[in-house]
């Protein structure tokens, strides 16, 4: 397969099919002003540059381009919020006013969404004004894409959707059509930034910063038309690797000068460049520790290079010892980010954002929130999520992640402030906003995301980054309304409940047949796909469950364990500290308990393990039946290829889930010797 | 590194250093006759083609080239055994008479060995005649070398000694100097055949049979000078892959004709070609099952193609279901070869040799012998050993395999006939001899074998294939005497006991800290290096230990288990059937027993697991001390680079052995809950 040829008519339109745009394209419309995003809006509507607002039923504009209210057919102009948009509906027209060109384009896509949702719900939006402001200023997708195929990690690290849409054959693609289509999809969700290369920066990828700038600029040009800035992942060792210096010491003036010069060159090529994304001193990547410097020293040096241009450093907090000794139960990977970074609060410059994974481990389906998010009030923080399903089914299992993300964003870490408010800079500590970032799940797959239903995760990320108060169910409704906008009304009314049946509880179901009660991992080493209960148990990676014949779990209490629970503010510190108050779903994350420990459900831990694995697999029957119920719509509401791919994935999910169920059940039966009270077969 | 440049002065001479040849090169010598091997012998001695036997103290000849006894200075000619040689020592001369040119050359190397050993023992050979005949007609090394680097398995599958000496950069090497050096080393051990490519035949390698024949002929030319034939591993699907046919059905006349024609072309290029080595219907390789045909159908069809040229089919018996369900305890991989092949006894043509791995599983450090070897009296059988240390330390651990091989060869499978006698055709069932084959451990490493001491395994294989009655200790003495022929006498006297200390018990020591009591595996999936107790426990590969909280082991009895024990003839059938009579070292291979089961040593199984892992690691102290005792000889008797490599490997061995010890001990402590009575720390 040659990747560039994959830019073909067979690519699925995701949540922007022509049918979703058609109702607007039928209206007489006018787009005021010019600029990359306003030109895009005009093209989306097929509006003439000379169209008169007087005749238009749909007007799009950046508020700064609007002279008088009358010029857009209104009696007064609304207060357009920063970065956001207003949608004004009158008897004869809809006016979209953006804070700027990108915001106006996003506002147009908001109208597309509203029209589609109205068709689903049967409730059309009435006259009036709707203001919409983004909750997070940074709404970014990180691509773990390698330019050259990596011998172990492939082209897209933790990618399950084919090759990269950016790179092929060791180079940036000549044809960026798929990148433009992707930018369009993202703009419709509210995403405004993209990191275009893997945070593990290998030799070829490091050179994007220097001799690859021409190609980087081509990518930026595409994204610019959709209001999306680009970031580069850079190697902290670049001055040595690329600059011929013999050091990358952040306090070395030559090093700082090299970075300043590098930043100058980047901005000369990409004036609206976002900044650098850095994974330093993490899993083998170089960093300031090599020179006895702190992470603040490292980040601030890069920040200084970017400051003249308005750029930002996104510095990842994912720092831990990945050469840990499994024999040493005092070392706790969960503690590492806090131990490294909390003492540095207040020392990062104001164009540094510390990017913190949602949990203290690594994107498990169930973890507590990271206490780092509560511990650095004077630091700009960004929450990092993972859209690509590394540990949540690798796009072979349905796992709609929005419910989990919404829970993280709404979680009140100190009992008062939600995570969303903290990263939005409304946490009260004085630090400006950081934002939200996530690892993309997109590749050059015909359905973008391998599993067609995994498109909903990408969609939901952008929407929840914009507004974390949206419910996961409403976001799913939006995605259904847009994606199946071409379906006849009665068909759409059947697709909707079927997809809710398949997706609403999918994440809990996945949790149900995989690692129990928050203990995490139990995955095949390397690939992280499929079960291997002891796969990481005697490894240096710090991810253990400590199951023995009597019990299981990691004691992270302060009283007798690693003390991780004590990194949380009240009330969570106390809640997690005690076996009695720790939520059952996190019990084994915080405590080592006997198999006979009784959960809130009244079941013992081991019986819960037995039952939940089997119940979750049985639950797949409902999923399969729900999809099967749409069989007569295949070829009409549901494209044939879409259906075929979903079925193939559902088959694979069942096989994998059965394997999970049986391995986990057998493992604990062999270890505990406790019979399954349900009488189900244990192998 | 460019591989071809590795043909350099730094390559270690292994067991043929100049010092080993020097005593003979100092003598006036004559080599009678001509031919590739006699020319080689002449060159080895630096003898003039016109040298007169009258003046020679050393005469080498093929017996057919000798006119009268007087022409070689003897009063009568000895009866030279088929394939072997006679060494006649008189007062003034040594006469080497080979059954043919290759045998004469091997006889010359035997004299080299005798001279070196005499120096070690202080006992010079006296006058008289020594006759030496090979016990096995086939003494072959199989190379699992890929022409093109395989994305998963690399250049040499299960190779731990660098790249291939045959191939580099996807082609047969232009410079075959290392191949010639290798051929010379092999000739000195008695090896007479080499399979030059991997039994897993990938696309590039399959083409050696067709458009690669010119290169194959170049390799054959090199080996011919050392009396070594070459074999090709072929894909059973070749008629489809290479011939454009739409079938590889062995009963299809077009298929048979294609193979006959392919064989004609091979023999036109390589007149002394050995034949085909075939892995069929095994681990994904194609075979006759796809056409509903038997393995006899497949092998006999190839045999017919080779028969006009005198060639042989080596057909591997390593056939089993590698997609087994771990839940199904009735399916037993150990049974597979017998179940597939024993019913076919008597149906293979006489130029087919069935190549059988020594154990029923896969080259574990401890397995019973394969019952297939006793079950096919009317079939030519070859024993397959593994010199490359896939499961025995991967040339990072010292593991001198000769004691184990000698045990296999001498094992009396039906209480009377040894394995060596069965494969030598002296088993009484009427089948002619098969022989012995082994997977080579050689690569383009400067020491040939990664670990310098692993050279001794390669040496020992050839010697034991020639004569299985040699003791492992005597073979090690030979290897020491030759390898360190340049050492001063008193130094050599110190090297000898030090190396025996390091190597004699090394295989038992490795067994001691790895999988216990014959249960096998417990290795990291994929690489097979390092411990992972449950690594293959829930896999489709059929290699399980079934440890639970109460006990461990695989019930292969006929009474209650898979019935594998019943595949053996008496008395082993009865011996293995019963827990009481089964040897402890194979207990867990044949039986599932409680941890409290008491072994012959008086220890329980679990205490044995605890103690043996720790004892074996402690035993490494003696190994390290023995090597350290030679420190003052580094730079004289022991080359500096040789010492550095051995030390690096000993360090790595200790680290790996500690990991094995701790993981296995912790695993069984967690599972059994039984305290280690020795009081040693368990993590």
Automatic annotation (TrEMBL), chains A, B:
InterPro entries in alphabetical order: A-glucoronidase_C_sf, GH, Glyco_hydro_67_C, Glyco_hydro_67_cat
GO terms classed as biological process: xylan catabolic process
Pfam family, one: Glyco_hydro_67M
Gene3D superfamilies xref list: Alpha-glucuronidase, C-terminal domain, Glycosidases
Domain Glycosyl hydrolase family 67 C-terminal: 449-680
Domain of life, per lineage: Bacteria
GO cellular component: extracellular region
Domain Glycosyl hydrolase family 67 catalytic: from-to ranges: 130-448
GO molecular function terms listed in the Swiss-Prot or TrEMBL record: alpha-glucuronidase activity; xylan alpha-1,2-glucuronosidase activity
The protein's name in its UniProt record: Xylan alpha-(1->2)-glucuronosidase
């Amino acid at each position: 397969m040659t990747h560039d040829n994959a830019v073909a008519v067979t690519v699925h339109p995701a949540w922007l099919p022509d049918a979703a745009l058609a109702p607007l394209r039928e209206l007489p419309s006018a787009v005021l002003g010019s600029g990359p995003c306003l030109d895009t809006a005009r093209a989306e509507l097929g509006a003439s540059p000379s169209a008169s607002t007087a005749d238009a039923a749909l007007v799009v504009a950046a508020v700064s381009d609007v002279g008088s209210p009358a010029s857009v057919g209104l009696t007064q102009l609304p207060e357009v919020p920063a970065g956001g948009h207003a949608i004004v509906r009158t008897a004869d027209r809809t006016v979209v006013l953006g804070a700027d060109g990108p915001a106006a384009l996003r506002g147009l896509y908001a109208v597309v969404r509203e029209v589609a949702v109205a068709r689903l719900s049967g409730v059309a939006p009435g006259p009036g004004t709707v203001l919409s402001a983004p909750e997070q200023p940074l709404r970014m997708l990180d691509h773990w894409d390698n330019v050259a195929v990596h011998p172990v990690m492939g082209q897209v690290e933790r990618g399950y959707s084919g090759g990269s849409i950016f790179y092929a054959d060791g180079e940036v693609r000549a044809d960026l059509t798929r990148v433009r289509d992707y930018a369009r999809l993202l703009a419709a969700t509210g995403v405004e930034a993209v990191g275009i290369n893997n945070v593990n920066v290998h030799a070829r990828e490091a050179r994007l910063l220097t001799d690859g700038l021409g190609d980087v600029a081509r990518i930026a040009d595409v994204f610019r038309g959709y209001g999306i800035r680009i970031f580069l992942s850079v190697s902290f060792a670049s001055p040595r690797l690329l600059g011929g210096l013999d050091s990358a010491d952040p306090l070395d003036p030559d090093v700082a000068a090299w970075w300043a010069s590098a930043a100058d060159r980047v901005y000369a090529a990409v004036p609206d460049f976002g900044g650098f994304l850095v994974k330093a001193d993490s899993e083998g990547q170089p960093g300031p520790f090599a020179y006895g410097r702190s992470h603040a020293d490292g980040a601030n040096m890069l920040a200084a290079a970017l400051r003249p241009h308005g750029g930002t450093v996104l510095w990842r907090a994912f720092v831990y010892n990945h050469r840990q000794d499994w024999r040493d139960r005092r070392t706790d990977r969960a503690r590492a980010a806090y131990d490294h970074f909390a003492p540095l609060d207040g020392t990062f410059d104001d164009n540094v954002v510390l990017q913190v994974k949602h949990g203290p481990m690594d994107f498990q389906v169930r973890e507590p929130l990271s206490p780092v998010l509560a511990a650095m009030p004077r630091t700009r923080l960004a929450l990092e999520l993972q859209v690509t399903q590394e540990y949540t089914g690798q796009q072979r299992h349905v796992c709609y992640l929005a419910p989990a993300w919404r829970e993280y964003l709404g979680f009140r870490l100190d009992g008062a402030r939600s995570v969303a408010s903290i990263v939005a800079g409304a946490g009260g500590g004085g630090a400006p906003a950081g934002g939200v970032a996530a690892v993309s799940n997109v590749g050059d797959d015909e359905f973008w995301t391998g599993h067609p239903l995994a498109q909903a995760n990408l969609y939901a990320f952008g929407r929840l980054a914009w507004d974390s108060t949206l419910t996961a169910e409403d976001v799913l409704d939006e995605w259904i309304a847009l994606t199946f906008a071409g379906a006849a009304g009665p068909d759409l009314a059947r697709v909707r409940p079927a997809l809710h049946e398949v997706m609403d509880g999918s994440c809990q179901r996945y949790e149900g047949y995989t690692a129990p009660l928050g203990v995490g991992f139990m995955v095949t080493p390397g690939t992280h796909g499929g079960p291997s209960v002891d796969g990481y148990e005697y490894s240096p990676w710090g991810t253990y469950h400590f199951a023995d014949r009597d019990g299981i779990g990691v004691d992270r209490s302060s009283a007798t364990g690693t003390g991780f629970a004590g990194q949380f503010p009240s009330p969570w510190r106390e809640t997690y500290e005690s076996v009695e108050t720790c939520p059952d779903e996190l019990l084994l994350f915080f405590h080592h308990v006997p198999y006979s420990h009784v959960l809130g459900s009244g079941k013992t831990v081991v019986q819960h393990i037995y039952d939940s694995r089997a119940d979750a697999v049985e639950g797949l029957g409902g999923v399969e039946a729900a999809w099967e119920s749409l069989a007569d719509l295949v070829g009409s509401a549901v494209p044939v290829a879409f259906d075929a791919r979903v079925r193939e994935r559902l088959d694979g999910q069942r096989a994998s889930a059965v394997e999970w169920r049986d391995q986990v059940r057998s493992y604990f039966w062999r270890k505990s010797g406790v019979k399954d009270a349900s009488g189900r077969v244990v192998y």
